[in-house]
Amino acid sequence: MLYPQHFSQFTREHADTVAALLCGLLLFLGWFALHLGALGLALLLLPAAYVIGGYESAREGLTTLFKEKELDVDLLMIVAAIGAASLGLWRREYHLIIDGAILILIFAISGALEGYAMQRTERSIRSLMSLTPDTARVLFQGREEEVPITQLKVGDEIVVKPGELIPTDGIILSGYSTLNQAAITGESLPVEKTVGAEVFAGTLNGYGALQIKVHKPAQSSLIVRVIRLVEQAQTEAPPSQEFIDRFEKGYAKVIVVAGILLATLPPFLWGWDWETTIYRALTFLVVASPCALMAAIMPTLLSGIANGARQGILFKNGAQLEKIGKVRAIAFDKTGTLTTGQVQVFQVISASEYTRTDVLKAAASVESSSEHPIGKAIVQAAGDLDWVGAIQVQAIPGQGIVGIAQEQQVIVGNAVFVQQYVTNLPEELREMAQSLEQEGKTVVWVAKNPTPQALRGAGAGVRCFEVMGAIAIADEVRAQAAATITRLKKLGIEKIVMLTGDNQETAHSVAKAVGIDRVYAQLLPEDKLDVIRRLQQQYQTVAMVGDGINDAPALAQASVGIAMGVSGSDVALETADIVLMTDRLEKIAVAMHLGRLSQVIVKQNIFVALGFIMLLLVGNFLGNINLPIGVIGHEGSTVLVTLSGLRLLK
């Protein structure tokens, strides 16, 4: 059963459609009454059609006129319609009132269709907001309680059961599961997560129950930031749209002046009668209005933003979607961008009297007390081995670490540090280590002495240690990095460079692996900034891809700054113009394709809009179109251009 509240809700949600329908009904009844000779009834119904169909346009046009002191196309349409009606009453040619009402009707229908078209983009963006539940299951003294998301505090422990949405960002305390992160990061396959892993609000839990600790306020979660930034992107006009807006304001004034001249001069210059002159002037006001031109840009860019958000690419505003389609050069940070930023043991080499297992166990025993990434990588590699943590561990920053393991002094560090305690580094091991370093690997040496008393009794200057072997550490190159570089070259990017603070050997090794020819190594943050400036002088539109605090100045300077969303620092994420919600480099090529496609569609739309205006103007002056045909052509081109812009939603 349809209740009054249902009807009320429908009329609120579809107000433009209801107004257009009523306008059309009244127009038909007025035309029918006029056809039957019931002039009084027709003159009652037709003005009602004018008011209902044209109210919203008149309100917006008058608001712009009085508040902003500007003319807009809405007001021009109303003036043209009222002018046609006035001319019909004056000449007693009442069909002109019908023409004006048809103008109002088609304009109302066009507005409703544009509204529905734009709602598709808005629904794509609003769908992000439905990705998080309203409540979370919080543990209080061993009991579960439903708590609104807004009341969650940092430190709360929440329970997420299989098949439920993750309510907020957090760290897994216990449990193991696979999470579908496609809605947030764009990853097509579920990701395995276990203790210590970070989970994001809006992702779908798989088969395992999880206990999660809230580590940031709910309003700071990734999905909330995505929604906030996408909403911000909707309200910020890109430079091209700002230009069109400025153009429209001046253009509307030109239209009015030209309309006045066309309504007064032709009878004196060409001998037109006044009825034809005014009618052609009113038609001119309709067909020359730049509605289609105004709709040529923003629907396209908003569709591109929504498309990118669905694929894990967050454009902070439409200007960046425009710019990335024009990029000619791109610079990549190395660590955490082209590489995973997580070092791991690449190779273990041992002296003749030791095994690789001996070397790894000895190193892990002392490194287990270290927070250094290299130490963590060694401990992780030795996870399945049987070793005991060292005591009296002392780290020497920038050099190495020492400790006592199973009553033996163990030293792990770089070659210079270890050579203080050994007679020499075995030549065979030294050659292998040099080869690994030339490939960009970091090599740490492992040495020990037979008894801890030897070190204490002999003094620091006595070389009583023996080399056990060396461990090569490498930062893993991202699997998709090489394919991404190849794809960018195929897209026509003229220059691709790497910027890093790392040493030359490591930088060149990574660059060679991914296919980058130009490398800038051992850079400070300000050095990266200078490189970006030099690239901009040569290539104008330059993109920078990074993830760390040291990348922030370069990201800000670049024409388009692109941050890695998962591994990126907060500073990088705030500074960048585009955020890759998953650390998948191939999304850069997708973003560039979206940017270029948006530019193609915008140009097509502008061409269609201007083409329709010129065609209708010529038809008007040749006398081949009347007011309703002019309206259909004008509004039809506007709807066509709007729908064309929505192609990027696919």
Output the keywords.
alpha+beta; six-stranded antiparallel beta sheet; 22 strands; 54% helix; 18% strand; 650 residues
Q: How do the helices and strands line up, and which of them pair or pack?
A:
Blueprint: H1 4-13, H2 15-35, H3 39-68, H4 73-91, H5 95-126, E1 135-140, E2 143-148, E3 157-160, E4 170-174, E5 177-180, H6 182-185, E6 191-193, E7 198-199, E8 204-205, E9 210-214, H7 222-235, H8 239-264, H9 266-269, H10 274-287, H11 291-294, H12 298-310, E10 313-315, H13 318-324, E11 329-333, H14 334-338, E12 339-350, H15 356-367, H16 373-381, E13 391-396, E14 400-405, E15 408-413, H17 415-418, H18 427-438, E16 442-448, H19 452-458, E17 466-477, H20 481-490, E18 495-499, H21 504-514, E19 518-520, H22 525-539, E20 542-546, H23 552-557, E21 560-564, H24 570-575, E22 578-580, H25 586-622, H26 627-645
Parallel strand pairs: 11-18, 11-20, 18-19, 20-21, 21-22
Antiparallel strand pairs: 1-2, 1-3, 3-9, 4-7, 4-9, 5-6, 5-8, 10-22, 12-17, 13-14, 14-15, 15-16, 16-17
Structure write-up:
- By secondary structure, this protein is of the alpha+beta class.
- It is 54% helix and 18% strand.
- It is built from 26 helices and 22 strands.
- The strands form 4 sheets. A 7-stranded mixed β-sheet has the order 10-22-21-20-11-18-19, with helices on both faces.
- The radius of gyration is 35 Å and the shape is elongated.
- The relative contact order is 0.10.
- Mean pLDDT is 78; it is low at 452-462.
Large-scale geometry: elongated
- Total strands: 22
Order of strands side by side in the largest beta sheet? 10-22-21-20-11-18-19
Oligomerization category of the chains in this entry: single chain
Secondary structure class reads alpha+beta
Question: Which blocks of ≥5 consecutive residues have pLDDT under 50?
Answer: 452-462
Main sheet properties: 7 strands, mixed
